[in-house]
């Protein structure tokens, strides 16, 4: 079986990622003061406006300066460019945050010390032996290209780059494993007065060979800023909302997705914690040599600690009976997940950019 599979990534200056980082920065600020904080915060940005909305239950209520966090986060991303409408110093911030529903709080925090799922839903975890990171090659390379753009911008190595950008990588697969990169798209925001040929030369001669490494070759079809000039970008040009890059955040479309986003949610929300745990378990399956590819699905009912279902799929690359027996050893209850992965720490803003999976430094990747 042969096919070409494509995945995309975005840089930290993309409007949706601006929102994800603001939401997770607020989450971390609460966890720093109260590790039992329950946070569900979403952000919307457009023009010179940022809107915060959601629910928070925390001992730190009233002690976290949301506005300062928003401005500091926007500044860190790099939106301090005079000719853009969206600016760290001048953005107008509107807040619509209320306490978490007491009905949900009772269901989540059980009297017996156990913990119920913060919502119903389905979550997936995926791992593949095709890369050292146990990630699909297409999304892995797309993330590294986006990360490379950000690194070149922030270090000043390429002075004309601006924060917004997208990448896309297409890979030719045979029998579920990659053979070569067929095409790459890099769209990057840039300063006025920079011609397209200068940007293309940078991508072709510097970014691609450095990032693609052994996957770089002559003959890759390359598109650089195919839409033309890209000066007016970020939230100045397009609206952004928390949770709209769920495929970039996970497996680039190679593995399925349950639909719930991660950013702005504490670990009591199984949309986040159970998806991390499914990835953790999937990695263990691959490392044990039980399959070359594995996808794990889990489902929950709100307030219930025991999952409704756990399913595995090896895409024909391993014995599902053996994998099922192996996976059955793992505890998918929310409290067990939080304890195992140590998810009460303020670690979440680090997850936002360039993939929640396939990067070192996270317990679910160890």
Question: How would you characterize the overall build of this protein?
Answer:
- The protein has helices spanning 15-33, 66-77, 102-108, 137-154, 196-212, 246-249, 270-287, 320-327, 334-341, and strands spanning 2-10, 38-46, 49-57, 92-99, 121-128, 161-174, 177-190, 221-224, 240-241, 293-300, 309-313.
- The protein is α+β, with helices and mostly antiparallel strands.
- The protein has three domains: 2-10 and 137-234, 2-Layer Sandwich (GMP Synthetase, Chain A, domain 3); 16-104, GMP Synthetase, Chain A, domain 3, CATH 3.30.300.10; 121-130 and 243-365, GMP Synthetase, Chain A, domain 3, CATH 3.30.300.10.
- A hairpin with a 2-residue loop joins strand 6 and strand 7.
Tally of DSSP helical segments: 9
Regions with little confidence, pLDDT below 50 for 5+ residues: none
Describe the largest sheet: 4 strands, mixed
Order of helices and strands: EHEEHEHEHEEHEEHHEEHH
Please, what is the average pLDDT?
A: 96
Task: Write down the domain tally.
Answer: 3
Q: Give the distance, in angstroms, between the N- and C-terminal Cα atoms.
A: 32 Å
Tell me how many strands there are.
11
Radius of gyration: 21 Å
User: What is the CATH class designation of the largest domain?
Assistant: Alpha Beta
Q: What would you call the structural class?
A: alpha+beta
Please tell me what the overall shape is.
Answer: flat
Helix content: 25-40%
- Named CATH topology of the largest domain: GMP Synthetase, Chain A, domain 3
**Largest sheet, order of strands side by side?**
1-6-7-8
CATH architecture of the largest domain: 2-Layer Sandwich
Strand share of the residues? 15-25%
């Amino acid at each position: 079986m042969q096919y070409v599979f494509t995945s995309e990534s975005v840089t930290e200056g993309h409007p949706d990622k601006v929102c994800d980082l603001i939401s997770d920065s607020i989450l971390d600020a609460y966890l720093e003061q109260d590790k039992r904080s329950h946070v569900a915060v979403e952000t919307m940005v457009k023009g010179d406006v940022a809107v915060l909305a959601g629910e928070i239950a925390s001992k730190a209520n009233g002690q976290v300066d949301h506005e300062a966090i928003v401005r500091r986060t926007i500044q860190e991303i790099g939106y301090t460019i005079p000719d853009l409408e969206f600016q760290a110093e001048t953005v107008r911030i509107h807040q619509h945050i209320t306490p978490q529903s007491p009905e949900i709080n009772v269901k989540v925090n059980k009297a017996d010390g156990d913990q119920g799922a913060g919502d119903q839903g389905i979550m997936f975890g995926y791992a593949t032996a095709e890369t050292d990171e146990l990630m699909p090659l297409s999304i892995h390379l797309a993330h590294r290209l986006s990360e490379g753009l950000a690194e070149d911008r922030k270090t000043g190595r390429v002075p004309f780059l601006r924060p917004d950008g997208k990448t896309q990588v297409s890979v030719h697969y045979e029998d579920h494993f990659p053979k070569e990169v067929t095409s790459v798209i890099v769209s990057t925001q840039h300063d006025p007065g920079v011609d397209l040929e200068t940007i293309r030369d940078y991508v072709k001669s510097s970014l691609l060979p450095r990032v693609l490494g052994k996957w770089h070759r002559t003959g890759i079809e390359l598109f650089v800023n195919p839409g033309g000039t890209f000066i007016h970008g970020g939230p100045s040009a397009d609206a952004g909302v928390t949770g709209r890059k769920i495929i970039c955040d996970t497996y680039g479309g190679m593995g399925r997705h349950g639909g719930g986003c991660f950013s702005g949610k504490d670990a009591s929300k199984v949309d986040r914690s159970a998806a991390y745990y499914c990835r953790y378990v999937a990695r263990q399956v691959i490392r044990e040599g039980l399959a070359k590819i594995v996808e794990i699905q889990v489902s929950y009912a709100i307030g219930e600690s025991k999952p409704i279902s756990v399913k595995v799929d090896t895409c024909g690359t391993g014995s599902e009976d053996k994998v099922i027996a192996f996976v059955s050893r793992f505890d998918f209850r929310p409290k067990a997940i939080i304890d195992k992965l140590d998810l009460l720490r303020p670690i979440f803003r680090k997850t936002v950019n360039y993939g929640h999976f396939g990067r070192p430094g996270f317990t679910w990747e160890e």
